[in-house]
Write a structure and sequence with these properties.
This protein is mainly alpha-helical. The chain has one domain. Helices cover 68% and strands 0% of the residues. The chain contains six helices and no strands. It starts with a helix and ends in a 10-residue tail after the last helix.
Amino acid sequence: MNQQESAETLAIQALTWLVGQPEDLGAFLAASGASGAELGQLAAEPAFLGAVLDFLLEADSRVIAFCDSAALPYTAPMQASAALPGGREWHWT
């Protein structure tokens, strides 16, 4: 599995987690313009998966909750985001 495929897999895990968080899911859908009915189809698009990770990375509380639930290091979403289209390096000060 290459780096982008690994990043896509992690992003799908994050999307699955997000679906179980109604408040965060509502905020993501509002920000992305997607509907709940479209999520399955959009999950096949690397750029959309990048948007999922970008949304996750906007709040430390989401990163911590997702990573704790998936037994991942807190840096995993940031690294995956950088491997997807539109990805960027995240810096915290």
